[in-house]
Amino acid sequence: MFDKISQNYEVLKLRFVEKEQQASLLQLHLRSLLQVSEAVNQNMPANALYQMYQNILIAQLQVQNLLLFTFDEFWNCVCSHNSNDFESTIEPKNDFKAYKDSIHVLDHEDPLSTFFDIVISIKRKQLIIAYVLLGGIDKSQIESKEEKINFIKSLTHLVVSSIDNKKLLKEQIERQYYQKEMNNAVIAQNLLLPNDAIKNDNLEVSYNYIPHKDIGGDYYDFLKLTETEYVFCICDVAGKGVASALIMANFQAIFKIFAEQKLPIEVFVHLLNNKTYFISNGEKHITAFIGYYNVETKKLQYVNAGHNASLLVRGNSITELKLGTTPLGTFEELVFINVGEESIESHDLLFNYTDGLIDVFNNADESYNEEMLKEFILRNASDSVMNIISNLNIELQNFKQNMLFSDDISTMCVRFR
């Protein structure tokens, strides 16, 4: 009787000790998770988090071989223990593509099985962002191998996902900052463009600007030099984006400074070319149509610097204004310059535009071409310049359907009285 009670006592004692050990182990695991969570909240650097993770697996869980690969544009090995020979030879994208399960047990035919037993994959949504290779995971008296692996998977997910989320948050903040700066740039750029239409006894002018992806490299202006003289331009920097917008901002300042000097058009264009070459280091050029108009002589002088030909409309005929020179900034000094001159009659119309207008595509991959533009201009030539531009915008919107504009579009319409 006493022996049986003694035996039961020993069994209960062993079970109690085992439960106590299991509770201690669970507490240790929870403490490890808590330490990692606190480190994440304190914005510990990624390399320090990976080192903490590696120490937990080796010191607490007695993992003998370890490799952890994470994906950030390309795969990187961020943790390695007793696995140096494999670190540089494994390509997760190719070597692990056959592993379909989140916990994959390596068979003896797998070349990795000499060092590793398990490959665990970690996903964000449907994309795998990490692989951990584990070797030497033995069952202990108080914890099964399966329990160890599940804990390691949870710990790995916590570490990798936390670092990945921090990276995504940083990218989001950077995108928001960039968008804010871009919005400021758009505001600044719009300040460079004339907003008010011109209407007096001599002429009527209207403009429109449609930017590509918020900011671009188009510029236009129409300036009164004297009571009888005007100078105007419409320009386009090669390329898109902030760099092109900055070059155009500089060009705008240069244009106004030289315009105030009332120079002959040949001298004016030569100076614009030289300064454009200087501010762009010869790496970008500007196509431009530059015109001088005298209301007394009714003469229009112009230089087309590699730009789309402006269209001079008289009745049912269109004259393309093509004479000029090479795009500004292509060469430090212009090799040639041909000044065009036209006699203007009352009610003549001058339509100027940048090449984004004939780079509009619809769903059928058809482009809005020059012939379509000429047909539109002739149909609407008798209307006001404001209505011409407004109707053209409607036509472009209808033509492109749900396609996006692929470039900046600037238009300037001038009616001579």
Describe what you observe in this structure:
This protein has helices at 2-41, 46-60, 84-87, 92-95, 145-192, 242-259, 265-280, 370-380, 385-400; strands at residues 65-72, 74-81, 103-105, 118-124, 127-135, 198-199, 203-210, 218-224, 229-237, 286-294, 299-305, 310-314, 317-321, 324-325, 340-343, 349-353, 409-416. It is an alpha+beta fold and 417 residues long. The chain has 2 domains: 2-170, Beta-Lactamase (2-Layer Sandwich), CATH 3.30.450; 194-416, Phosphatase 2c, domain 1, CATH 3.60.40. The chain is elongated. Residues 11-23 have low confidence and may be disordered.
CATH homolog superfamily of the largest domain = PPM-type phosphatase domain
Distance linking N and C termini: 126 Å
Low-confidence stretches: 11-23
Question: What profile does the largest beta sheet have?
Answer: 6 strands, antiparallel
Identify the notable features of this structure and list them briefly.
417 residues; alpha+beta; Phosphatase 2c, domain 1; 2 domains; 6-stranded antiparallel β-sheet; elongated
Question: SSE layout and pairings?
Answer:
Layout: H1 2-41, H2 46-60, E1 65-72, E2 74-81, H3 84-87, H4 92-95, E3 103-105, E4 118-124, E5 127-135, H5 145-192, E6 198-199, E7 203-210, E8 218-224, E9 229-237, H6 242-259, H7 265-280, E10 286-294, E11 299-305, E12 310-314, E13 317-321, E14 324-325, E15 340-343, E16 349-353, H8 370-380, H9 385-400, E17 409-416
Parallel strand pairs: 11-14
Antiparallel strand pairs: 1-2, 1-5, 3-4, 4-5, 6-7, 7-17, 8-9, 9-10, 10-11, 11-15, 12-13, 12-16, 16-17
Helix pairs in contact: 1-2, 1-5, 2-5, 5-6, 6-7
